[in-house]
Amino acid sequence: MKKLFNYSIVLFVLVIVLLLIIPLPAGLVDVAIIFNISLSMMILVTTMTIREPLEFSIFPSLLLITTLYRLGINVSTTRNILSHDGSSGQVIKAFGDFILQGNVVVGLVIYLIIVLMQFLVITKGAERVAEVAARFTLDAMPGKQMAIDADLSSGLITEQQAKIRREKIQREADFYGSMDGATKIVKGDSIMSLITTAINLIGGVIIGMVQGNGTLTEVMTIYSIATVGDGLVGQIPSLLISTATGMIVTRAVSEGSLNEDVSKQFLAQPYAIMIAGVATAVLAVVPGMPVFQMGIVSVALVVGGFYLTRRIKEEPMAAAMATQLEMAAGMVPESQEEAAERTVTEEEYYKDVNNVYNLLSVEPIEMEFGYSLIPLADESVGGRMISRIVIFRRQYAQDMGLVIPSIKLRDSSALSTNEYCIRIKGEEVARGEILIDYFLALDPENPEKIIDGIETVEPAYGIPSRWIRPEDRERAELYGYTVIDPLSVVVTHLSEVIRQHAYELLTRQEVVHLIENTKKTAPELVEEAFPNLLSYGFLQRILTSLLKEGVPIKDMETIIETVIDTLQETGLPVKDMDSVTERIRVALKRTITRMYCEDGSMKVITLDGELERTMAGSVSKGEGGYYMALSPDIIQSLIRQLAEQLRKFNGFTQNPVVLTSQVMRIHFYRLVEPFYPNVRVLSFNEIASNVQIQSVGSLRLETTGMRQG
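Predicted structure:
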């Protein structure tokens, strides 16, 4: 029985094929017609209640099946009408009598109006919408893929989420492509309905007259009832399916079901409702108008609009805006002390000296918003920023091994309405401005067309961009722009700032937490290291150094083991942190390689042999350790050459990498880090042996002048 159910659709299609061949009695034809009308109603209701087209992705195939089913019924009814003197069941007769009501001409005119309305208005419109939607969806695929890659690289989404979003984009393209073809089926069905009607009427009259079934008037009456009834039982389901087709191809810009969207968007415009009521009242003065009926409609619209206006004003929007957004990504509620602070005057509160100490605390990360941006973070009005921060925190912990501390969000009157500010340990490190009702379109290298918008610069990466209206989004993607919503702009900027300053967020207390977490899986290793060989302070400096250069500290066991082995084997003093850090980087070479390797190859900038020898000869030892004392001419030349070579990475997705010897790596990094903090300096020993190194440029010694240290 279960196997039979699994193949029910296949059996249904086979039954439809049999309808084209085997004559059916009038009773079975009635059942088939009733089921056809019910199925069409069910499909229409489904298209009106879904939130997005992919929830009903079987619609193109279902459209083909239902059309074939209607054609099978038409063949059966036509056979019965022509072979049984215009009789093909009670349903057809009932529809024919209801429409004609004794007047053949009026009935045929009404029937033709229904058919032409479906063909010229609904079917043709749905066909055009499906065609445009298919073309726009296919053209926008590259831009959507780039947006997914950008979110993935910034840590806003996981690899699994990116995979799901890519699959959704592919399914959308397939769906709209199928719908573009499926609408042609609906169009053909409408044409076939007209042909069937003509065959039933003309063929029936000819057969009736030849067989001598009555006068021309009697024969016309019999076959017109059957023809109109048969046409209607086919056209009503066809009209419902055509309407459903138009519904589903226009759901792309919807946020909820059709009922939710209509209710929300109409009821959000009370003044439009009241104006319509006043306009209706004005029309009532036209002579001959039904004053009573128009007065009822006018009063209903004005009263309804006035009621909606009052309800909107009474909504707790002001309270939501006034709420202080001093909540972290961990959503810590306001403490009792903070609540008590607001119940007394400021002067009385700070009379207690202990309360003054509360002013000395510094938040690790703070984000301040202008008034217009508060809804982005306020969950009571649908803000999703906190959930996006939680996703980033989880992703960053998985990638880098550091748990980002709570982020304090608050509004600020010192900022303009569209500005936001990011602070690290109380000091501003970044600032940006967004337009919450617009979308940010990143300029492509060679845009097909320039789209209208407000020119700006993307705050996280400094990419030339422009703010565009929401209705221009699809057109911008069609022109090659990468379009980002305002919330993603803010979260991306915040995530990049956190990545750049992550090493500052690694406190001594956080190191203790990391060690305690490692102790759960490697207790013997932790007991060996602490406190006999290592201190938390020394390990903190090592981890900070790794994070500053973008090296993950997730593999804490390898890091601690390497530190222990290095100190025991070499007898290095604890203060020689650079040598220990370099040994750790070598131990983590697979992790480092993975970060900068694409398809088994790594693009790098190399150093000329003469340059490395000159740099090695300039290394001197001071009180703070070893340092490189190059002349200003050489430093200036290196920075200029590096700037030229970095331009070659503009067309690559890989971050810029400079490859040096292990001895010179740390010295060269400290040389270029003030100028190019995002450039990664690696040594040959930090690259896995199975990676192909591809040099895209080289730095050379252009002057021999050197300042002696």
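Summary: The chain has 29 helices and 14 strands.
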